[in-house]
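Hey, I was hoping to borrow your eyes for a little while. For a while now I've been wondering how a particular protein folds. The fold is given in discrete form, as structure tokens running alongside the sequence. Could you read through the record and tell me how the tokens relate to the sequence? Take your time with it, there's no hurry, and the full record follows here:
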Amino acid sequence: GRSLMELGVPFVSASAASIRSRKVDMNDFDAVILILGNQKTTTSPKHDQLGRDPEFQVFPPRLREELDRFLSLGGRLFISGAHVGTDAEMRLEDDPDGIAFIQDRLRFAAETNHAVRTGGVRSASESISTDEFRFSFNTGYHPEIYRVDAPDAIVPFGDPFEFGNGESMALTSGAEQEHDSADDAYRPGPGVWRMPSVRSQINPSGPETVIRYEENHFSAGVGYRSDHHAVITFGFPFETISDPQERTRVLSKVLGYLGIPFTEQE
């Protein structure tokens, strides 16, 4: 939240449960930041015998449905988490649609977990920044930030975007409509913000690696922009970037990639 405030971007937050139930409709907003942290599927002892479903799946079916709908209607999405790829891979037998979702919709595939021991990251594409930048996330003791033990390496999946490849051009009337009143111009939503016609035109690109781990040059983040929606995914939790100023600068690069305006920092 601090980084968004420093960039002059209004925001509110909501739980994933409220999104899955559509008590909060992501399509009321131009962009969503999905914070997954260290979340991964967890099973209780003897869950099969007890008839208990696994808990804390990273992309459960209802969330996938809502994210798919959001992107189909022109949404801009930033996802970060330590198990964004490998959680679906580990559940391939029980939920094969999970792999299909991250590959076909989010346009990345899992490469490995425990990708690095250190948290150094650098930019890897001019699509996210024309100037190279570096930062680090926490992999050791920190008094205020939790430790990331097993970040994912994720790689681009699928062919580069081309006009006429079946991508939808349509936007719903609510996605970018003009509002006459201040009350309509800002409505609460999920970890997100909403202003009238805030989305900027984006240049299609990707899927592509936009950041890499410095330790071994594995792909740490993947971006994809069609002619009307955009998604960028990090294989580690964004909130664990150690330095607050670096965190804000990285978020400004992400917002720029997604075509979301913000206030430039001096």
Remarks:
- Residues 137 and 241 are 4 Å apart (CA to CA).
- The chain has eight helices and ten strands.
- The two ends are 19 Å apart (CA to CA).
